[in-house]
Amino acid sequence: MVVNGGFQKLFHKGIRYERLFLLNFTEISTEYGYKSEEHTVITEDGYVLTLFRIPRGKNCHFTVRRTPVLIMHGLLLSSDSWIYSGPEAGLAYLISDDCYDLWAGNVRGNYCSRNHTRMNPDVDPEFWKFSLNEVCVYDLPAIIDYILEYTRSVKLNYIGYSQSGGSFVIMCSERSGYCGKVSVAILLHPAAKMTNVKSQAFRIITKACEILEPNIQNALEYEALPRGGYIQKMMHDICQNDFIADKICRSILTMLDSYNPGSISVSTIRALTGHFPAGTSFRVMAWFSQVLNKEEFQNFDYGPVMNMKIYGRKQPTTYNCNATTAPVVIIHGENDNIVSKKDVEWLKGQLPNVLEVVYVKNPLWNHFDVPYSQHTREMLYPKIGEYLFKYSGHGAE
């Protein structure tokens, strides 16, 4: 158990919180003694994405396994979310310490992938005119291709949390060849069809974005909940006091999701507010509002007129979940108010190759516990480790 959280340990080493909030994945992991790398990927449509890699964990004392592991973040998060809770609980550390070549990706629009070969995100509204479909059609394939080419591997293992769990299913539907490049997909609380979301805060936020999105003109207005924006700055400022972080800021997380007392340490709450929310486009947020109210798991709905121009039909195209032929493991918590058990069971019934659906043994395990809990090692990682081992090469190339 990590009583004081990973960031608290660094603070005791003389590294101030104020400095930690300025550090990225590579810099934070280096502070913990993990050697990491930063890589750049350019998508077919010109978006510049940042990947981070820990090629070998600090506590890996054996040969690194052949099959690389790609872990992808959730909505409004970044690769940094996998290291906030420190080496005892952060999934990036746990996986790399288990002798896997760990890659943490970022999709377009968050602060790690806010760049383009031709467009300026501060000036060009077109930069922000993407929904989740573009993330799945362009970003994930580009990331997968880059990792396989760089490591000279045939396949990789995929771990997708929340948005990135659903994104894997969409990628397999729209770019089916990439499903064959994944040995096993471990989907953590996957956000696909979401008609049974319990979080009223999530519904209100995404609905507001859906209402506002068609009327936005300015490039910066298209960017939803960015790091450095008013909301993130306010959260960061008020959550730096331990008492406020524990009482008020924890209550905000509970309002968005549900209550799991003691799961996320105060130091982790203080740390995550320096990087969350991480930004995305209004259109991505609007798409999530749409899937809350649609019986079909479908592409972005532009309205009948634009749908005819884009899809050749009045309704958006639906995603073919049956195209997800890669072996899939789903891990979920029953206290998740953002991705419900009913929606997970629906997804299970749509996918053709589900190996197992696992519910975390802690009945209070919720959505935000996946990246931030101090109990990840015992609650989440054993099953992840089991399937990574089963679907990985067990030696150097």
UniProtKB/TrEMBL annotation:
Domain of life: Eukaryota
Coiled-coil positions: none
GO biological process: one example: lipid catabolic process
Classification via Pfam families: Abhydro_lipase (PF04083)
Active-site residues from the entry: 162 (nucleophile), 336 (charge relay system), 367 (charge relay system)
Molecular function, one GO term: hydrolase activity, acting on ester bonds
Gene3D superfamilies: alpha/beta hydrolase
UniProt entry keywords in alphabetical sequence: Glycoprotein, Hydrolase, Lipid degradation, Lipid metabolism, Signal
Protein family according to the UniProt entry: Belongs to the AB hydrolase superfamily. Lipase family.
PANTHER family in UniProt: LYSOSOMAL ACID LIPASE-RELATED (PTHR11005)
Species, as recorded: Parnassius mnemosyne
Signal peptide: none
Domain Partial AB-hydrolase lipase, residue spans: 26-85
Name of the molecule in the record: Lipase
Keyword Glycoprotein attached: yes
